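Dear Dr. L.,

I hope this message finds you well. Following up on our conversation about the binding site, I have prepared a predicted three-dimensional model of the protein together with zinc ion. For your records, I am including the exact sequence and ligand specification that went into the calculation, followed by the structure tokens. Please feel free to forward this to your student if that is useful.
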Amino acid sequence: MGLLWETHSHTTLCNHAHGTVEEYATTAFERNLAGIHITCHTPLPPGFSPHVRMREDQMDSYLEMIDQVRQKFKGRLEVGTGLECDYLPELEPWIAKIRERYPWSHFLGSVHPQTGEYKATYALGVPVENIKRYFLLLAKSAESGFFDTLGHPDLIKNEYPELWNVDSFHKTICETLDRIAATGVAMEMNTSGWNKTVSEVNPGSVILREMAKRKIPVVLGADAHRPTRVGDRFLEGLEILEAAGYQEVGVQSIGKRERISIEAAKKSFF
Ligand SMILES: [Zn+2]
Ligand SMILES: [Zn+2]
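The resulting structure of the complex is given below.
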């Protein structure tokens, strides 16, 4: 059995992804992963970008749907019931309620600057200030104590691709990473970044180097919205991580995280 997990994947319940849980698990098994977390977008208060997430009354069927596949793959692949949960400070009481509802295998916290709700409150200033504000929210999401991992933690670059220059935000990013490091929360290396406007992993290499200096744990996630992307480009991701100064990669299994050597991780994956 493999060592790595797919930590970030979506199903049709999110209304913008394709494939069944069984199809996602099948790809994970074929790529010799140890397990997969399904992390559909959590329900949010009524009216909050409903077109990209399950409704609250669908949560029981979400749990059942994953449970059936977990039984089917028993002894071959672990299947975790996780969630990707939007973070904004005003959502904290809601997030606390969702968090308590189930022992989620991977509770992934994401600041999503592309949503209308985010833009209405947090993207009203000049672009440079908006980019800084995103990183402040990222630090706050880590400090909220809700999350195992922070999802795609430089996603803001795709909102301002022409303006984005990581070096201009060095001070803000370093302050953010100091705060995140103090919490012990992991950060995701999201390989779907290669398919976005600023085509590189989220976060990119400069930020990864600063994370390595602070020994912030990293877990790999493909953010798969279709089964064929499960574990996508993990090998390249591991090489980038190594070049940034990491010797180990985080492995998020059911409700806990360990570290393994990148060398061992590379050999385990195909
Ligand atoms: Zn996301
Ligand atoms: Zn996602």
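In brief: The CA atoms of residues 99 and 237 lie 29 Å apart.

With kind regards,
A. P.
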